[in-house]
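To whoever is on call:

I kicked off a structure prediction for a single chain this morning and the downstream step that reads the tokens threw a length-mismatch warning. I double-checked the sequence; it's 252 residues and nothing unusual in it as far as I can see. Pasting both halves so you can look.
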Amino acid sequence: MTDSSRDTETADTAEAVNDAEAAQTEADHSVTEVPADTAEAVEDTEAVKDAEAAQTEADDSVTEVPAEPDESSEPTVSRRRGRPRFPRDVKFNLKVVPVILVVLLLISGGAATWVYFKRYQPNQRTDPSVARAVVSAASDGTVALLSYSPESLDKDFTVAKSHLSGDFLSYYSQFTEQIVAPAAREKSLKTSAHVMGAAVSELHPDSAVVLVFVDQSTTSKDRPDPSMSSSSVLVSMTRVNGNWLITKFDPV
């Protein structure tokens, strides 16, 4: 081989090496160089992460401020013990209410007991004193019914009516006005009754029956001498406004 050929090969070899180095340099640049858009996106992502981290730190550094209690609100519940917590005035009222209820119950119970023993106890309304009052009322009423005089008929009838009640009062008023008064005035009838004895046959809190034994003397214009008669009568009595009045008068 000649010297010129060798120089030519050497030159070609050197040029090939230079081309290879240039290609390698361009490849390195293409790998390491980052497009401008990609770099900006990376920078934005890092900024967002930094902002989120700062916000998290700010949230952690904020302390919660407890709300002020509302005095007008309903009683609150304690989280520590799990039972209701009431304001002082509510606690006081809750203590007072049972005391008031107990006092009211005692008063009502005492009043009911007094009413029972003083007014409605059956034993006290049928005891011996009541029986005596019934016998006395029946005896006085019998005498008033069977005693009258032509000189004082209106007065005598009025007294008799004060001992009567109910239907028997109506019957007596009609009977004396239509029958007894005309006969007494016409014949000068005068009667006088006397109770010889009386006893209680039945006794209840508001009613009673009394057996009355009575003697009656009668005079008239035709018979001036008294004529005597004896009879027995069952007198039914009823308590009206605290007074014992005759409601039936049945001869036996």
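Update from on-call: the warning came from a stale cache, not from the record. Cleared it. Sanity check on the structure: Helices lie at 3-32, 36-61, 88-120, 122-125, 128-145, 153-161, 166-187.
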